[in-house]
Amino acid sequence: MSCCGGSCSCGKGDQTPVQENLALVQMSTSQGKMATHDWMKGLGALTLDEEVVEVRFKNNRKAFFRNNPGISLAKDDRVVVEVEGGHDLGTVSLNGALAEKQFAQKGEGVKKSSLMRIYRRATQVDVEHWLEAKRREREVLLRSRSFAAELQLEMSISDVEFRGDGKKVTIYYTADKRVDFRELIRKYATAFRVKIEMRQIGARQSAAKVGGMGTCGRELCCSTWNNETKSVKTESARVQNLSLSASKLAGQCGKLKCCLNYELATYLEAWEQFPAELIELETDRGSLLPVQPDVLKGVVYYVLSGGNDQSRFEIPIEKVKKYIALNKEGRKVETGRIDPVKSLVKSPQSLYN
């Protein structure tokens, strides 16, 4: 979890100035996180008059910039970029052909000529000014939360980010209702003496900035590698036969977990092999009730309705279709041709109850 999230101690008293600077660099640029693998590296240079470069800033924020031909850049280079009313410092996350492809995919309707420029590679002086601004972030985060609490505003401040030139700070917050923070802005301007920008973000984005551990035991995907916030629907859990318990499906942000979308396409493709509805099968021993489909394995589990025989039958989906066709012809399935599974089912019930 990032120290800027406001929930851990930086331990500055035990660090030398050099160690402190290194920690700030790693913390502010999410070194090792949100990195993009350049799978086109070594496949040949892209000849462009002005190439597009993707630059990474604090946490999961990335943006595209226009690079002049005279500046030779490589991945992980620190650069000074043009922003409205000043300049900022970031790290090159992608350049060359792959950055062009990313821009073509994400920058629909945006012309290269309208992009902000990269001024130069960052010098030692640029880095020092940037680190000086970053050192203020934790103090500003805590004080900004204190001011919001004093004014009893219903908002949650998750993170603050100083620009590389130290002349502007962006305060990220979440709120369920509209917040009148005009008085809060005045307090901030007086206390911090920089330009203030309040930026409202969603619960998913807030969790990405704060960070944490998921139920899988790994760091949150949104704060490590996944920088695209997509909507997740409950239908994704139904398609994958997952429990619809809110406590199991909700992530740290309180929304449905992003990982519900990861295998969704595979399940949707597998479901195409199944009939539109799994119905009871009429057999010579009674009705077989569908209990549970195993989508990826391509089988459906059935149990006999009524009686003491609770053997579970594992039937491949192709045979299920065949048996349904037999029932439609008025013929019953011979259970002697179906081998029951050894495991028992205590309370058989229809899949769609």
Descriptive report:
The chain is an alpha+beta fold and 353 residues long. It has four domains: 3-34 and 47-125, no CATH class; 133-203, K homology (KH) domain (GMP Synthetase, Chain A, domain 3, 2-Layer Sandwich), CATH 3.30.300.20; 234-271, no CATH class; 281-344, no CATH class. Helices cover 28% and strands 23% of the residues. The chain contains ten helices and 13 strands. The chain has helices at 17-29, 96-106, 124-134, 137-150, 182-192, 203-210, 234-239, 246-249, 264-271, 317-328; strands at residues 51-56, 62-67, 78-83, 86-94, 118-121, 156-162, 168-174, 195-200, 281-283, 286-294, 299-304, 311-316, 340-344. The protein has a five-stranded antiparallel β-sheet. Strand 11 and strand 12 (311-316) form a beta hairpin. The longest helix is centred in the middle third of the chain and has 14 residues, at 137-150. The radius of gyration is 28 Å and the shape is elongated. Mean pLDDT is 81; it is low at 1-13, 27-32 and 342-353.
